[in-house]
Inverse folding.
């Protein structure tokens, strides 16, 4: 198992709410469905730890409160499998965090 952590030294950490209001971020599309958007504060969970195990990628969720973000609760430290086709590497991430976007049913829209 490999453990990867996003480095925040190069990019100042900003709030997801500040970043979500930027046109560049709002225009991000799902990697496997390029005409389908996924960005919304209620879909976003910081996931700074990425684990690669047996060829599969997993992200671990953050500890920010859900209610201000109007998002469903996901327990802190929940490991979410990120399908390879949902890993987005072609656009920069201005938050300084790994971010996983989930549907209310737990479907992974994207990891950026």
């Amino acid at each position: 198992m490999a453990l990867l952590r996003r480095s925040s030294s190069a990019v100042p950490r900003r709030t997801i709410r500040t970043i979500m209001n930027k046109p560049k971020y709002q225009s991000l599309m799902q990697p496997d469905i390029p005409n389908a958007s996924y960005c919304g504060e209620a879909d976003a969970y910081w996931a700074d730890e990425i684990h690669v195990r047996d060829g599969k990628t997993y992200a671990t969720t953050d500890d920010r409160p859900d209610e201000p973000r109007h998002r469903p609760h996901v327990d802190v430290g929940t490991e979410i499998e990120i399908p390879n086709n949902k890993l987005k590497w072609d656009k920069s991430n201005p938050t300084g965090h790994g971010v996983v976007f989930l549907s209310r049913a737990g479907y992974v829209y994207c990891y950026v």
About this structure: The chain has a mean pLDDT of 77. The first strand starts at residue 2 and ends at 5. Residues 2-111 form one domain. The CA atoms of residues 58 and 80 lie 5 Å apart.
